[in-house]
Amino acid sequence: MNISNSDTTLREMHNLSLEELKALGQKLAAHCRNYRDASLRRSLTQLFITMGLFLGAFALTCWSLEVSYFLTLPLALVTGGLLVRLFILQHDCGHGSFFKSARANDWLGRGLSLFTVTPYEFWKRAHAIHHTSCGNLEKRGVGDITTCTVKEYRALPFFSRQMYRLYRNPVILFLISVPIHFAILQRLPFGQPLPMRQIWRSILGLDLALVFFLGGLIYLIGLGTFLSVYLPVLAAASIIGGWMFFVQHQYEDVYWERDAEWSFHLAGLLGSSYYVLPKAVQWLTGSIGLHHVHHLNSRIPNYRLQECLDASPELLTFPKKLRFLESLKCAPLALWDEDNGRLARFADAR
Q1: Neighbours of 124 (CB within 10 A)
Q2: Can you give the three-state secondary structure of 291-320, one letter per residue?
Q3: Backbone angles phi, psi at 275, to 5 degrees
Q4: Which residues pair with 343 in a beta bridge?
Q5: pLDDT of 220 strictly over 80
């Protein structure tokens, strides 16, 4: 949502001026600060339950190969969902919110990277940049999904326009690009949005650890079982996680602004969705669908996000609320239309 170009629309939607919106964002951020403290008991309980369920589901998925691969695939989907939940725990560690101890967060985050195959320090650094630049048109490119403005897209050479259209095609983006990113591109220190000197140790260190960790797994269950089970589980987790990240910041009236007008609090309040999911799915995804709360204060542990949301009427009603069927309409959106202050489809840009 482009505030400077859409102030009339905002007044109609919320009956608030720009100054009142910013004041509300600051008020809600202050409210969120009351929920930052992690509970060691709750964190450890969540870790042991999630890890136990994941390992049990993975073993059950391996066993299902003896019955039918038609049973293996749905079990791989469930196991992939539990892997997403492990990623949420790693995500909380990266924000320093899962434990009070920074050292404990970092060691658990590194350990979980063996399961999520996501280099912890590299991801932690890139994701922190995402939080400090989300919705800022002049600071795109680190920890986010590449998004061109309409004017930028029109200025691209023909071949570059076709490559961008291919990249933003929902089938390519979620079923091919996202799994390739998690499984392959995260293994390479080259072509990343951060300087190699800052990230090579994180990426190559995890690659070396994965050689032994996954090599040991292959030794135990066999290469055929590994490929038949692990790859579908990893693909399912990456697709679910990729979709969640996409829909949290890629909806029609999302907030984008130039640097001079950009506001951290408005980016959290207007640039991050409230994704309403069934309770079981919300549990699997660590309540990350309450993304506006998370962006207003990233130090809130995942198990306190709902508590924070329930305690504030404005957090419940003000942000963009999306349900699953409605969120599917976000998939074709690919370009930021600065003139109209909204995300648009390629057809709208012609």
Answers
A1: 20
A2: HHHHHHCCCCCHHHHHHHHHCCHHHHHCCC
A3: -90, 105
A4: 336
A5: yes
Number of folded domains that form the chain? 1
* The dihedral sign for the CA sequence 91, 93, 94, 97: positive
For residue 274 the two structure tokens come to 């409230």
Using a 10 angstrom Cβ sphere, with 0-12 exposed, 13-18 middle and 19 or more buried, the burial of residue 226 is middle
Going by the DSSP 8-state scheme, the letter that residue 136 receives in this structure is: B
**Which DSSP symbol is given to 172?**
I
Q: Is 2 inside a domain boundary?
A: no
Percent of the chain whose predicted confidence (pLDDT) is above 90: 79
Q: What share of the chain is helix, strand, coil (3-state, %, to 5)?
A: 70, 5, 25
1 assigned to some structural domain: no
**Secondary structure (3-state) at 83:** helix
Q: By residue range, what is the domain housing residue 285?
A: 7-349
Q: Which residue has the higher pLDDT, 29 or 8?
A: 29
pLDDT tens for residues 292-325? 999 999 999 999 999 999 999 888 887 888 999 9
How open is the CA angle 169-324-82, to the nearest 5 degrees? 90
Identify the burial level of 91 via C-beta atoms within 10 angstroms of its C-beta, where 0-12 means exposed, 13-18 middle and 19 or more buried. buried
To the question of pTM greater than 0.85 for the whole model, the response is yes
Q: Is there a domain that residue 63 lies in?
A: yes
